[in-house]
Design goal:
121 residues, mainly alpha
């Protein structure tokens, strides 16, 4: 009876395992829905800053904290998507959809409640 050398068996196992393995994409470090909301809020803050110049420093960190993210988590999520341009494009399309939906919603009044409807002509 002939035995395979240990090195041959090990090589055969590694080759077989490699051929059968499925490459899986790692999950993003931040949920897509969270990142869509964060990016939309950051875009809105940026637009406000460029138009009315009343956005305080630290707004980015406040937006991140509002969504439960640290700056490090946000940056890790951005790195994840920069390495996956197709997924990044899909994510930004969702951000644009989110912003479009927001712009279609009726404006809300202050905390006192809804404003009265305008008088009829």
């Amino acid at each position: 009876m002939r035995h395979l050398p240990l090195g041959g068996v090990l090589a055969l196992v590694l080759l077989t395992a490699g051929a059968c393995s499925v490459v899986t994409e790692p999950d993003p470090p931040v949920a897509d829905s969270t990142l869509v909301a964060v990016l939309a809020d950051l875009h809105l803050a940026d637009v406000r800053a460029s138009l009315v110049h009343d956005v305080p420093p630290g707004t980015r960190d406040s937006v991140l904290a509002h969504h439960g993210l640290t700056p490090a988590e946000f940056e890790a999520a951005l790195r994840y998507y920069v390495e996956r341009p197709d997924a990044y494009l899909e994510l930004y399309n969702r951000v644009l959809d989110h912003l479009t939906e927001e712009s279609m919603r009726p404006a809300t009044s202050d905390a006192a409640g809804p404003s009265e409807p305008p008088p009829s002509p």
